[in-house]
Amino acid sequence: MTDRLSMEEVLDRDRGILEHFGMQVLTLGAGTCELQATVKPELINAAGFAHGGLMFAVADSACAYATGSLGARGATISSGFNFCKAARAGMTIHCVAEVISRSRRLVTLGARLSDASDQQLLAHGTFTFMLLTD
């Protein structure tokens, strides 16, 4: 039995995560992924903003799917993430992730999150994924 999954199988297995965080994959390309998430009221923290974990999860997921679009599976081993502007309930977060570099064992990606309504930058980060072998 092989452990290699198609992108459709990956997205199907991730359905719970995608639904929990309100994420929807818009496009997948060779080393890129574009997705969006609408901030649910239950993901708002005591300060009235979307929890930072939501923003990170959106970026991390987009990077994972961008890695998967290359026919590879990966696991996040490091990241650097910067928040620029808060998101609020009902806001649609748009994320674009793309591969910056790839070696035999590692993929480095950049992710940019913006408010879908006005394209204002919300957060950005870099992620390094270790490629998994079967």
CATH topology descriptor = Thiol Ester Dehydrase, Chain A
What's the shape? globular
Overall SS class: alpha+beta
- What is the distance, rounded to the nearest whole angstrom, between the alpha carbons of the first and last residues? 10 Å
Kindly report the oligomeric state of this protein.
single chain
Order of neighbouring strands in the sheet with most strands? 1-2-4-5-6-3
Mean pLDDT over the full residue set: 93
The rounded Rg comes to 15 Å
Identify the CATH homologous superfamily.
Hotdog Thioesterase
Q: Provide a count of the helices.
A: 3
Question: For this structure, what is the CATH class?
Answer: Alpha Beta
Characterize the structure shown.
- The chain has 134 residues and is α+β, with helices and mostly antiparallel strands.
- It has one domain: Hotdog Thioesterase (Thiol Ester Dehydrase, Chain A), CATH 3.10.129.
- Helix content is 22%, strand content 43%.
- It is built from three helices and six strands, in the order H-H-E-E-H-E-E-E-E.
- The chain has helices at residues 7-13, 15-20, 52-68; strands at residues 23-29, 32-38, 73-83, 92-102, 106-115, 121-132.
- Strand 4 (92-102) and strand 5 form a beta hairpin.
- It is globular, with a radius of gyration of 15 Å.
- The mean pLDDT is 93.
